[in-house]
Design brief:
11 helices; 4-stranded mixed beta sheet; alpha/beta; 6-stranded mixed beta sheet
Amino acid sequence: MEPTHPIDFETNTPEHVLLRREGAIATITLNRPERRNALSYAANRRLHALWEEIDADPTIRAVILTSADCGTFCAGMDLKEAAELRARTGQDILQLLQDPFYERMRTVRVPIIAAMTGHFTAAGMVLAANADLRVALAGTSGGITEARVGRGTPWAAPMVAMLPLAVLMELATTAHPLPVERLHALGFINVLAATPAAVREKAADYARAIAANAPLSVAAAKAGLLASVDLGAHAGYALSKAQHREVYASEDAVEGPRAFAEKRAPRWQAR
């Protein structure tokens, strides 16, 4: 969805989102530490473009989403900028954003690992929820704080598959953040790490493991599991079987067992 009012809000704006490639792994970094990595209009457009770019590049097998160190992974939407845009255009920020709830993340072909090196709230929680794996910094917290500033949380609906309803209701209605230790105990966070560097290294461990596996198998696994969340177990299972037909018919389905028998690393052909 393109903005209904063309606005040139990226002129003379520093790069709010960075991309770095290292082999088959792409690292995306939110880069506004002076604003607690709040998501700007420019960042929204850049992120959407990067998901498209990643899906178009078959050599990318895993993505790490992190941020510049400032104590906060992402503080949410840039509310100051949102107010300025409302004054300039007369429209709510959500009407102007290309992908207001960062839904494009959920359809990215490869797994996305959120390496959260600080607190995360509001849109920061959206990014965390839309990622596939989550590594968090011990001693930080995560929250759904929109009710505190009169905003909304339709994007939290898929999180009923990630957290108990009572906990999710607590987050959304009280706007009180929860310690990541509790979110980890509930299964929302995959692993905790003691320092920002350790968070990123654990995320890199996940990314390297994913990148070493058969690309078609990984993509089908992600798509099939998300289909079960979206459609329910029965319909999701049927769709997942259809999505895996390409996997079983691929050269990699032959190469994997052969490499195992020959005690060597597999040479994946499919991308």
